[in-house]
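Page 42, continued from yesterday. The earlier attempt failed because a stray header line got pasted into the input along with the sequence. Redoing it now with the clean sequence only.
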Amino acid sequence: MRHIYPCPLRWSDMDAYGHVNNAVFLRYLEEARIDFLSLRDAESRDGSVVARHEIDYKRQLVHRPTPVDVELWVTQIRAASFTVSYEVKDADAVYVRASTVIVPFDFEAQRPRRITEQEREFLTRYTDDAGDGADEEAVAA
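This time it went through. Structure tokens are written below.
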């Protein structure tokens, strides 16, 4: 299962070359990630921090009135981190493929923490091994 976030494009997202600036894509990923993680228990005092981003730019995206979809799924769950992968796309094209390593964090103690069983159950629902491998094969072809 994948989480789909319809991300609006803003006029200010464009750079001098008339396409969405590369750094703006990180904001799109952040918006999708926040939307995804908000599906969990909203009352938790614990949160998460980003440990790593990887991003591959596939095509230019120009401003338009319709949103672009950010699809997000979980590709790895470890004891104290998990990885989400994304595609920023529409029906016609994939603009970005990316991944983020996320570390659960105890803000009161100011340190990383292990993933809880409830979090693991939530994340497991969004694993998509078959879809991730299929994407890899399509890129290699």
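Notes: Residues 3-140 form a domain with the Thiol Ester Dehydrase; Chain A fold (CATH 3.10.129.10).
Reminder to self: strip header lines before submitting.
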